[in-house]
Design brief:
The complex is a heterodimer of chains A (300) and B (282). Chain A is mainly alpha-helical and 300 residues long. Chain A is built from twelve helices and two strands. A two-stranded antiparallel ribbon of chain A has the order 1-2. Chain B contains 15 helices and no strands. Chain B is mainly alpha-helical and 282 residues long. The chains are: A mainly alpha (300), B mainly alpha (282).
């Protein structure tokens, strides 16, 4: 009797899961496989027809000899590392502020959710206006504060453009990660702080020995997720700089797009996409490893 | 030093925290406020140095001009609405039972399946975009709202499953046992008992999926041309065409983001809890 009930639950379970899995597989399985195959071909679009020709690792050989690819790789490395470091520290700081009794007001939660819900494109358009060289409010503010004397073309020089891209992306990314970390902070049991207090720990030591260790998992997850997200940044580059000036803001993701859909060199674009895919795959594996339940959960 | 005093901090720490909160408020709110102010100011007042914020310069003209002049914006909003509702509804219908089964029913390898689903969420869009573009072109479904909506399922379905699974894992098993004792089957338990108590996470998942679909740009750029253009594309085009009419550009941006920001603010508590549960529970 019990076993048939269990069998029924198992059957129903499969029946519940199957449609979602089939749909996901139908959308994703073929593109994933084909994207790997495309990277091994020379694929060109001409007059609406697709011509395909096997080239082995030709695309990858071309890739490693391509100065633009290496430039994009360097840009991406700088952008992602800085982005993740800044977002992690700022988010932790914001979460700690909001976890204090002064920061509990619902107002701050609204402040966090709005930048998250703001469309990346609208965000980029807004910052394009803020950074405008002639009438932008950033130039106006800095001039009236006496920081600069003349209007600056913020997106005009390679170094400045890449860093403003970074700042705008950090502005957009912090709120969400801060919300994650705040949720983590609120799960640190108060009794641990009380115990640390009994043992004579001051605020700094109780942060170091109670808050940080219990938050380790959350912080690790935030770092991995943020790295994956930073590799995906596209809308911002597309609207703010289109990769310029002098390819200074071409990130790998944007390069793959440009090669594929502007230069119509599909196989080469797929090769670049595969590099991003491989990087992301390693990061995703790290995420799963961090999150995988270590001890068996209670009876299901 | 008392324990409460230790947690709250002395005068110095309180000052630092207040200053930090003020800085954070300015940093987060200033760009948004500037977006709204810019959309409401006349062009002349807006490009004055410094901008002339006197009350008589505020107007709704930017909004009426943008709405009247740009048929593309209206069509974009309609398309975004269709794509977002379509993919969100499908994601809920397919995702809720799947999440329930993965959390509560004896599905073989439930954890592995759940993580496989999560892993698909991390696929970089560009990796699947090229083959998808080729396939959808061959099928003649480029510039079609529904094909875009189906592609959006590839990220909305995993989000919905993870948010709901996080919640379902936490339901006390006594509820299901009581239902079984009363003779309810698994379907009935799911439909009449589990779903009604899951309205908060369901709404969180729905809002989350809706926002993601509404804001999506990359696939929309690749898979649409004219007829099926969604709002983010229209805004990006505006930013190129109306470079110099800043107030109108900002008005268009405000119109495009207002619906989802409103949703997000209304459902903020559910979204925050739903996401934290989904992303941090193994």
């Amino acid at each position: 009797m019990i076993s048939t009930f269990e069998q029924r639950r198992r059957r129903t379970g499969l029946f519940f899961v199957a449609p979602a899995l089939i749909v996901l597989a139908a959308i994703l399985f073929y593109p994933i496989v084909d994207s790997i195959l495309l990277a091994l071909q020379r694929v060109q679009l001409a007059g609406g027809a697709v011509t395909q020709q096997w080239t082995g690792f030709g695309n990858f050989e071309r890739l490693f000899a391509d100065a633009v690819f290496w430039k994009a790789a360097r840009n991406t490395a700088y952008f992602s590392v800085m982005e993740v470091v800044l977002v992690t520290f700022l988010s932790l700081g914001v979460a700690l502020l909001l976890n204090h009794s002064f920061g509990r007001s619902g107002f701050f939660r609204i402040l966090l959710i709005v930048p998250w819900a703001l469309a990346p494109v609208a965000n980029a358009v807004l910052w394009k206006w803020i950074l405008n060289a002639n009438y932008g409010v950033l130039n106006g503010m800095l001039k009236s504060l006496g920081v600069i004397e003349n209007n600056q073309v913020w997106l005009g020089t390679p170094f400045s453009a890449l860093n403003f891209l970074l700042i705008v992306d950090v502005w957009k990314s912090v709120p969400f990660v801060a919300l994650l970390m705040l949720a983590g902070l609120q799960r640190v049991p108060q009794s641990l702080y009380r115990a640390a207090y009994m043992d004579g720990a001051g605020p700094w030591r109780s942060f170091l020995h109670v808050t940080l260790p219990t938050m380790r998992g959350v912080i690790a997850i935030a770092i991995v997720l943020q790295t994956i997200w930073s590799l995906r940044v596209f809308d911002l580059v597309f609207v703010l700089t289109r990769g310029g000036p002098a390819d200074a803001t071409v990130l790998l993701n944007f390069l793959a797009y440009r090669v594929t859909f502007n230069f119509l060199d599909l196989g080469y674009g797929a090769a670049i996409a595969n590099i991003i895919f491989a990087l992301t795959f390693l990061l995703a594996a790290a995420y799963v490893w961090l999150l995988w339940p270590r001890e068996p959960k209670g009876a299901r | 030093m008392s324990f409460a005093r230790l947690r709250e901090g002395g005068p110095l720490r309180k000052t630092v925290i207040l200053a930090g909160l003020a800085l954070f408020t300015f940093w987060s709110a200033a760009p948004i406020l500037w977006l709204i102010i810019s959309s409401l100011l006349e062009q002349k007042a807006l490009i004055a140095q410094p901008p002339d914020l006197s009350p008589q310069n505020f107007t709704l003209e930017n909004f009426s001009t943008v709405l009247a002049a740009a048929a593309a914006l209206g069509r974009g909003i309609a398309n975004s609405l269709i794509v977002s509702l379509f993919s969100t509804a499908l994601a809920l219908v397919l995702g809720a039972p799947a999440a329930y089964a993965l959390a509560r029913l004896p599905v073989p390898r439930a954890n592995s399946i759940a993580f496989l689903i999560l892993a698909t969420q991390m696929l970089p869009g560009i990796a699947i975009a090229i083959p998808l573009f080729i396939v959808i072109s061959k099928l003649g479904l480029i510039d079609n709202v529904l094909s875009l909506g189906i592609v959006y399922l590839s990220f909305n379905l995993p989000i919905v499953i993870w948010i709901l699974r996080g919640f379902f894992l936490g339901i006390p098993s006594g509820i299901e046992k009581a239902a079984a004792v009363d003779g309810a089957g698994i379907f009935a338990t799911f439909w009449y008992i589990v779903l009604p108590i899951s309205l908060p996470p369901l709404s969180a998942a729905a809002v989350f999926a809706f926002v993601e679909a509404w804001n999506e740009f990359f696939f929309a750029l690749i898979l649409t041309r004219q007829q099926a253009q969604t709002v983010p594309l229209v805004i990006a085009q505006f930013a190129g065409q109306y470079q110099t009419v800043f107030g109108q550009m900002m008005a268009a941006a405000v119109i495009s983001v207002a619906p989802v920001i409103l949703l997000a603010v209304l459902f903020r508590n559910q979204i925050i809890r739903g996401f934290a549960d989904g992303m941090m529970k193994g």
